[in-house]
Amino acid sequence: MWKNETLPFQRMSSIAELFGVLQKIEMKWKTDPRGLSTLQKLVDYEIRNKQHLDPNSATQALLWLTRYGNATCQFTHDEDFHISHGNQDISA
Q1: Which residues contact 52 (CB under 8 A, 6 or more apart)?
Q2: Nearest to residue 17, comparing CAs of 83, 61, 71, 82?
Q3: How many CB atoms lie within 10 A of CB 6?
Q4: How many CB atoms lie within 10 A of CB 29?
Q5: Vertex 51 angle, CA 47 and 54, to 5°
Q6: Residue 58 burial by CB count (10 A; 0-12/13-18/19+): exposed, middle or buried?
Q7: CA-to-CA distance for 10 and 64, rounded, in angstroms?
Q8: Cα 71 to chain center, whole Å?
Q9: Stated pTM of the model
């Protein structure tokens, strides 16, 4: 399944990028920890204030984090990915 496709999470190629995404969410939350006490409240706030499309918004960061998580889950559960059984040479 993944052989000729670009893995969706290759856009987040390093741990530093992943932490950058988490920092965007944290920075927005720190502006009002009580008012933005849930991720839903944080997203609603950005939508109301028309900030959700800003590339540095917490909403965009959450979208990337979700995509990264979904892609990682799909990749590790793929039939062609048998690292746990030792059936695939990953030395390339």
Answers
A1: 43, 46, 59, 60
A2: 61
A3: 8
A4: 17
A5: 130
A6: buried
A7: 11
A8: 9
A9: 0.64
Phi-psi bin for 38: left (phi > 0), alpha (psi -120 to 50), beta?
beta
> Of the segments 5-19, 46-60, 72-86, which one has the largest average pLDDT value?
46-60
Tokens of 8: 């969706």
Greater pLDDT, 35 or 77: 35
Answer whether residue 45 shows pLDDT above 90.
Answer: yes
CB 72 within 8 A of CB 9: yes
* Tokens, residue 61: 């960061």
Q: Residue 62 is encoded by which pair of tokens?
A: 């959450």
| Calpha distance 17→11 (Å, rounded) | 9
Q: In this structure, what token pair is assigned to residue 67?
A: 């995509």
